[in-house]
Design brief:
The chain has 425 residues and is of the alpha/beta class. Helices cover 51% and strands 8% of the residues. α1 packs across α6 and α3 crosses α6. The mean pLDDT is 92.
Length: 425
């Protein structure tokens, strides 16, 4: 589609990006076939094609209203449409700039502003979030059901952390809500990679990856959080003491890979940001690579060949494009992944979406849980903290991060190491 930019957008980063992305759209509608909100609502304006047309009109200078904002707010930014699109339309880049511009043209109700500000500032600040969550957990039985869902049951974690220090080191992004809501996930990652001869290093000064603020149109806030993380990690990177930056939350991993674009216009951080993007790796990629170097027949096996339904987060399969890898990893350790229905559709978590769009989020969760259980699995696994909390709140069967299952297998086997490697005390 051709876009004739309004004068106010000519030569601006937002306008030129919108024009570039929209130009690739041929209006075929294939995207609607895999769009979760279009599947639920059946409204052209709640599918990627309709939203692209609304944003095209906005950048051409036509009047926009709360109706445009409503339909863009309905979008999960799951990026299923990008996987489906035969023309390679980078819809997520368009909706990012479109939402940011729309915020300057349409005034949100004060209640929405307050809620969005609270989510943005609370969830992306690990220190504040941990304190608020601690109070919440103490009074959890007294909270409403919707508030209890934001505080999933935490697994008691008493297993010790490794004391060995390996020659190979990688940096671990703890994130913002994960250390409080699912602390066992990163502990499991540390233990698994230790068994594979890699030490994961936590840097206290690093914090939220910036995804929450970025997705809520606070570009400057997201950039500042990215700079803080770069500053925290740079001494080890500059000293060539870290091989990669690891995330166990696929949503955070996507944001880290985006640092190069996020800070492309910052003369002081652009090159460092590109380095960070190049070093960012989801934990699944690392485990995949390490298993390729090991004797598959010598891997410890699960004592029970549990049937596992894998919920691949949208960020994992559509953004990181790592579809299918979790099932392969679990098979290597003796589990039995089972088929799920409509695996490409979002579970409804999508960062803060479950709070901002509760009705749509609830419908998507109900559908996802039904789809995950069609082959009667013993357990559901995921790769993102948001999906875990959202699904666990209503799942009738246990749900975990997949790395926790691998950690359990290695621990039960009694093997401290899967490789022969020199370590230092």
């Amino acid at each position: 589609m051709q876009t004739v930019l309004a004068e106010e957008f000519i030569g601006t980063p937002e306008g030129e990006k919108a024009k570039e992305v929209i130009a690739k759209c041929v209006h075929c509608g294939f995207c609607n076939a895999t769009c979760p909100t279009y599947q639920l609502l059946g409204n052209e304006l709640d599918g990627p094609r309709g939203r692209i047309y609304m944003m095209k009109e906005m950048f051409e200078g036509k009047t926009v209203t709360g109706i445009t904002m409503e339909h863009l707010d309905h979008c999960l930014t799951c990026r299923a449409c990008e996987t489906t699109c035969p023309s390679g339309v980078r819809y997520s880049e368009l909706v990012e700039v479109g939402r940011r511009v729309l915020e300057t043209k349409v005034e949100r109700p004060i209640k929405e502003k307050v809620v969005r500000w609270g989510l943005k500032e609370l969830a992306s600040n690990p220190a504040v979030f941990s304190k608020v969550a601690a109070v919440g957990y103490k009074v959890r039985p007294l909270l409403t059901e919707s508030l209890q869902e934001l505080l999933p049951e935490r697994k008691a974690e008493s297993l010790p952390l490794p004391t060995r220090v390996h020659q190979r080191k990688m940096l671990l992004l703890d994130g913002c809500v994960q250390p409080t809501l699912t602390p066992q996930t990163n502990i499991a990652a540390i233990r698994v990679l230790d068994a594979m001869g890699i030490t994961l290093v936590r840097i206290e000064k690093a914090g939220c990856c910036g995804a929450i603020k970025h997705h809520m149109n606070d570009l400057e806030g997201a950039q500042e959080q990215a700079r803080r993380n770069i500053d925290a990690w740079w001494p080890m990177i500059a000293g060539q003491q870290a091989d990669a930056i690891i995330s166990t939350a696929s949503g955070c991993g996507v944001q880290l890979e985006h640092y190069g674009d996020l800070l492309a216009g910052d003369a002081h951080y652009a090159e460092k940001a590109r380095t960070i993007s190049g070093m960012a790796r989801d934990i699944s990629r690392v485990v995949q690579d390490e298993l390729a170097l090991l004797d598959a027949e010598g891997l410890p096996q699960a004592q029970q060949a549990l049937k596992i339904a894998v919920q691949e987060p949208c960020s994992f399969q559509h953004a990181l494009q790592n579809k299918g890898s979790i099932s392969s990893l679990l098979k290597a350790f003796g589990f039995k992944p089972v088929a799920v229905r409509d695996g490409h559709l979002c579970c409804g978590s999508a960062g803060t979406y479950s709070v901002l769009q509760p009705e749509l989020s609830e419908q998507l969760r109900t559908n996802k849980l039904e789809s995950l259980q069609i082959n009667s699995p013993d357990m559901i696994v995921t790769a993102n903290v948001g999906c875990y909390g959202h699904l666990a709140a209503k799942s009738p069967i246990p749900i975990q991060h997949w790395i926790e299952l691998v950690d359990d297998v290695i621990r039960v086997s009694g093997r401290q190491s899967l490789v022969a490697e020199a370590v230092t005390a």
